[in-house]
Structures are given as C-alpha cells and as structure tokens.
Amino acid sequence: MALGVPAFPFTIVTHVLGVVDVVLVLVWLLHFRGGLAWESDNKQLIFNIHPFLIVLGLIFHGGEAIISYKSLPLKKEVKKLVHLVLHAIALILGIVGIYTAFKYHNESGIANLYSLHSWLGIGVIVLYGIQWIYGFVIFFYPGGTPDIRRFSLPWHALFGLFVFVLAVGTAALGFLEKLTFLESSGLDKYGSEALLVNFTAIITVVFGVFVVLSALADAPATADDYEAI
C-alpha cells in the first residue's frame, strides 16, 4: 500500500517530532525527576534511565531507521546500511533501557513483570531482536537468494511497522503507568509535570503516526533511479 504522495513533507515533520520527543523526556527527567544515574542511593534516578533510553532507542532511532529509505536520497545499498545500523542502535538502547527497569526493581525490592506495560515491553524487545536478526541474515549477510529476498521484503516491512507501532503503544502505556504511580503518591493531577508527561506521550504517538505515513508515502528519486534511466 502506498499513499501516492511524496514522503518528504512527512519525513521533515517526523524528524522534528522525534527531536521534540527526546527533548521533552529529558526535560521531564532532569527538571522534575532529579536526573539520571546508573548507581545511586536514590533508586528513582536509576529508573529514569529506562524511559530515556526507550524513547531515544526504540522510538526515535527505530522510527528514523524505518523512514531512512524515504528520507535519504542515497543509493539503495547506503540506505540499507543506514537502516541496519539505526535499528541496531535502537535495539541496543532498548535492551539496556529494559535492563535498567529490572535493575531499579531489584534494588528497590519491587516485583518484576507484573504489569501489562512490562509484558508488552518484553514482547517488543524480543520481536525487535528477531526482526533485526532476520533482516541482517536475509538482506545483508550472508544474504538470501533473490527469490527469498523478494518474498520476504513486504513481510519484513509490514512486520517492522507492526513492531514499531507496538513499541509506541507500549511507551504510551508506560507514561500512563508512571504518571498514575506519581499521582497516587501525591503528584498534582493538573500540575506542570503531569501535563508535561501527558503531552510527551501524545508527541510520542504523533511521531509514530508520521513514521507510518512516511513509510507509506513515495520515496524520493535516488542515484540508483538516475542510473537506470
């Protein structure tokens, strides 16, 4: 399925929204939540690494990886490498981000994997890993046969979008869960922090929408296209 419109305006909006999303998460964690730390007596600082790396990794880098084929007027092999590397960065940051959630829970005496958000999070990172490994083996090295690549490509793209949308939904659920905990502990439901968290979640969802729109729109002409003329 294609929208039949140029991807360029969608990709520009996507880039802007992605940067805004990461900045908003940092503002929340640094200004309202006290910052980030790998080791600290204040275990909340350890937890703060989790939302930052998830948004920076699975959401921002994951989204940029998906739209790289539509936002970069480069040769196909170059875009394939950019796509692969960005997804690898997203996967690594996502794994570390999930690890910090376990680290925070373990050091705080909190049970693991009791919420829908955590269940979906584990599912997302497992599916993301499977998707990356399959893409690496079939499309990069050692590479499948032309028939296998041709058959796999639409399913690889569709499954990639599905995993990304699931990651966005899980992130939004995570914002909701954390804000609910904070409000249960006395945070003003209509205060500036609560509004910031909700707004950040909305930006995350809108970013995801524009990633999908960019993926469905028409790619710009590339050097490969000009060589074929």
Automatic annotation (TrEMBL):
SMART domains: B561. Its main location: membrane. Residues 13-216 form the Cytochrome b561 domain. Its EC number is 7.2.1.3. The keyword Heme applies. It catalyses: Fe(3+)(out) + L-ascorbate(in) = monodehydro-L-ascorbate radical(in) + Fe(2+)(out) + H(+). Gene3D superfamilies: 1.20.120.1770. CDD domains: Cyt_b561_ACYB-1_like (cd08766). The keyword Isomerase does not apply. Signal peptide: none annotated. One of its GO terms (molecular function) is metal ion binding. Keywords: Electron transport, Heme, Iron, Membrane, Metal-binding, Transmembrane, Transmembrane helix, Transport. InterPro entries: CYB561/CYBRD1-like, Cyt_b561/ferric_Rdtase_TM. Its cofactor is heme b. It is an enzyme of class 7 (translocase). The chain crosses the membrane at residues 7-29, 49-69, 81-99, 119-141, 153-176, 196-217. It is a multi-pass membrane protein. This is ascorbate ferrireductase (transmembrane). It comes from Sphenostylis stenocarpa.
